[in-house]
Amino acid sequence: MSILQYNGSAIVAMVGKDCVAIASDMRYGIQQQTIACDMKKVFQMGDKLFIGLSGLLTDVQTLKQKFDFKLKMYSLRENRPMRPKVFSSLVSSTLYEKRFGPYFVEPVVAGLDAKEGPFIAAMDLIGAPVFAKDFVVSGTTSDELYGVCEAFWKPNMGPDELFETISQSLLAAVDRDCLAGWGAIVHVITKDGVTTKQLKSRKD
């Protein structure tokens, strides 16, 4: 078993029309043993900026604190919030500088830029980024998420339709992965703000 699969996770970010959504499961497990079902894997980094961190949960918590610190230093120095594309580069360089002893984390960044609109990106554990205009996935449920997202996603979805699509995609995918699931949380980012909803799912 890969160390990236030790805790299990499912994270997906999806683009709509002038909106973007990011969702994750809520299981905290050690291999096949479930410890809790209220684990946060998606964190708000700005008004309209989120990061999802899949992988080893000790490294997830370490990186969350590191990104919090770097964002605060940036806003103090620049006197403005960090844009999603810039934050994605920050995440990528933070991971790459530790490439010889990497953090076992695969991040997903989702945000809404006032100038460039919806932004999503995913990275591997040394920070090699992939940018997409439809969806990106991460975690042990990646294979299952690719299948359902390709079937369900369509362009120019509104916030409500985007919420329904990302929710159904995530719930369908985690049903086929014993290392993820046990509830889910979805954040939909629009120009008016962020809507967060919690989903119930199978717990067997």
TrEMBL record:
Coiled coil: none annotated. GO terms for cellular component: cytoplasm; nucleus; proteasome core complex, beta-subunit complex. CDD domains: proteasome_beta_type_3 (cd03759). Pfam families: Proteasome. It is found in: Cytoplasm; Nucleus. Its main location: cytoplasm. GO terms for biological process: proteasome-mediated ubiquitin-dependent protein catabolic process. The keyword rRNA-binding does not apply. Keywords: Cytoplasm, Nucleus, Proteasome. PROSITE patterns: PROTEASOME_BETA_1, PROTEASOME_BETA_2. Component of the proteasome, a multicatalytic proteinase complex which is characterized by its ability to cleave peptides with Arg, Phe, Tyr, Leu, and Glu adjacent to the leaving group at neutral or slightly basic pH. The proteasome has an ATP-dependent proteolytic activity. Belongs to the peptidase T1B family. Component of the proteasome complex. This is Proteasome subunit beta.
